[in-house]
């Protein structure tokens, strides 16, 4: 779902030069290096740019293409695939980095040629849809001050033999329009964010006005035919005003669905594709709630600090379920000590922070800035929560495979069998 993004000021700053190869620009005549010009580095189609004057480091590009080694974005980009991308980018983009531009959408396989749909687009609400139709490109958009709605034939990127793929996406140029408090990089790893973006995308598409060429106007009752013929003109919607505008739009859309046959299933196809994109095998829904939580091993559910270093405490005491350290300064839904909590720990309890750092920070990260330390410590904590499942499974399988004098299976507790999933 999430595709293009831009962060104008990465927290890593100029330290990123130790991680990426930035181009060096020189004067061809003198060989002198230009030190006052922008320089960039390409990481699988993500472009990192350093601006010398203000020393800002910017990143922009398609996360979907990045997931495909920088080549294409015409397949399905799911939440789980995005999580893998964040793991690949954790050295370059920090959880608290603020996103300035975000583009999200889905690729829908349609039973009709997307070209036919694009040709029959009329308006988005009151605003006419602009269409660019030429060889190799069939693209439609409707631009507002802070966001853009885009619909285009994605199958054309695969050449003449490509599948029928319709791309529907929204691009927001200011995050406050979507999220009043802004959007952090870490927020994109929250499944609820994806559910919300899916809802936004569906709402935007519900406001699109289009015609269906399979309609036989001669068979449409005269009382309904007038609105269909009038609504085919974008100027009608542009001049429509007042509280009844939304009602008339819905009435027109219902008539198109009633008498047309080509595009009737498109809203359902969009809904199905969004559901597939936000489906996660790492997260499972809480009953009767849209809130999603990580699936926990059985023993950790019963003993939340089993893998921590502190004494067990009640789950409601707002402590990290791995370390037992207070996370009262973090979001209410937090389960682990994260970067903001670690930063606060360093301020309020330096000795406690040093102890945590010594336990969890690999020595190879010591030469990097504090923000990198915080990130790696947080990563270690999350890993410890999930790794016992895999470690226990491997140990149990090894017991069953290795030759032994006595059968050890009865000695393995039910809790550990549940953790290992065997």
* Low-confidence sequence ranges: 284-317, 388-394, 396-406, 418-422
Q: Please give the number of β-strands.
A: 14
Shape: elongated
Strand content: 15-25%
Helix content: 25-40%
Structural class from helices and strands?
Answer: alpha+beta
Number of domains: 2
Q: Helix-strand pattern, N to C?
A: EEEEHHEHEEEEEEHEHHHHEEHHHHH
Give the spatial strand order of the biggest sheet. 2-3-4-1-5-11-10-9-8
How confident is the prediction overall: mean pLDDT? 79
Biggest β-sheet description: 9 strands, antiparallel
Straight-line N-to-C gap = 34 Å
Radius of gyration: 27 Å
SS summary, helix count: 13
In short:
The chain has 422 residues and is of the alpha+beta class.
Give an overview in words.
This protein has 422 residues and is an alpha+beta fold. It has two domains: 2-214 and 261-277, no CATH class; 296-420, no CATH class. Helices cover 35% and strands 18% of the residues. The protein is built from 13 helices and 14 strands. The chain has helices at residues 63-67, 79-88, 114-119, 191-206, 222-231, 234-239, 245-259, 266-278, 298-302, 339-348, 350-360, 370-401, 414-420; strands at residues 2-7, 39-43, 46-51, 56-62, 101-109, 121-124, 127-128, 130-134, 137-143, 147-153, 165-172, 208-210, 283-285, 292-294. The strands form three sheets. Strands 2-3-4-1-5-11-10-9-8 form a nine-stranded antiparallel β-sheet. It has a three-stranded antiparallel β-sheet with strand order 7-6-12. A hairpin with a 2-residue loop joins β6 and β7 (127-128). α4 packs antiparallel against α8. The longest helix is centred in the C-terminal third of the chain and has 32 residues, at 370-401.
């Amino acid at each position: 779902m999430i595709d293009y993004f831009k962060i104008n000021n990465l927290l890593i700053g100029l330290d990123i030069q130790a991680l990426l190869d930035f181009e060096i620009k020189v004067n061809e005549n003198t060989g002198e290096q230009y030190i006052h010009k922008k320089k960039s580095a390409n990481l699988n189609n993500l472009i990192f740019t350093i601006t010398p004057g203000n020393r800002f480091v910017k990143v922009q590009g398609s996360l979907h293409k990045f997931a495909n080694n920088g080549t294409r974005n015409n397949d399905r980009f799911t939440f789980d695939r995005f999580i893998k991308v964040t793991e690949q980018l954790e050295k370059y983009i920090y959880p608290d980095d603020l996103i300035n531009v975000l583009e999200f959408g889905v690729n829908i396989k349609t039973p009709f040629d997307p070209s036919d749909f694009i040709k029959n687009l009329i308006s988005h609400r009151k605003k006419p849809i602009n269409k660019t139709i030429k060889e190799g490109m069939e693209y439609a958009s409707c631009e507002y001050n802070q966001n853009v709605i885009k619909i285009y034939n994605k199958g054309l990127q695969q050449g003449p033999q490509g599948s029928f793929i319709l791309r529907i996406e929204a691009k927001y140029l200011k995050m406050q329009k979507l999220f009043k408090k802004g959007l952090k990089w870490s927020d994109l790893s929250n499944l609820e964010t994806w559910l919300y973006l899916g809802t936004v995308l569906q709402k935007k598409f519900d406001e699109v006005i289009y015609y269906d060429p399979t309609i036989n106007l001669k068979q449409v009752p005269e009382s309904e035919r007038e609105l269909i013929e009038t609504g085919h003109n974008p100027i009608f919607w542009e001049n429509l005003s007042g509280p009844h505008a939304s009602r008339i739009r819905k009435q027109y859309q219902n008539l198109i669905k009633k008498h047309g046959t080509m595009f009737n299933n498109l809203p359902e196809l969009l809904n199905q594709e969004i559901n597939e994109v936000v489906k996660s095998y790492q997260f499972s829904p809480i009953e009767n709630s849209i809130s999603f939580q990580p699936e926990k091993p059985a023993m950790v559910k019963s003993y939340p600090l089993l893998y921590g270093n502190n004494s067990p405490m009640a789950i409601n005491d707002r402590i990290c379920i791995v370390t037992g350290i207070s996370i009262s300064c973090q979001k209410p839904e937090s389960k682990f000590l994260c970067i903001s909590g670690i930063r606060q720990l360093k301020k309020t309890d330096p000795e406690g922070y040093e102890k945590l750092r010594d336990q969890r920070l690999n020595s190879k990260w010591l030469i990097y800035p504090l923000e990198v330390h915080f990130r790696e410590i947080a990563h270690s904590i999350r890993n410890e929560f999930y790794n016992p499942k895999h470690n226990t499974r491997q140990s149990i399988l090894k017991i069953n495979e290795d030759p032994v004098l006595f059968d050890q299976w009865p000695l393995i507790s039910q809790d550990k069998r549940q953790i290992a999933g065997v």
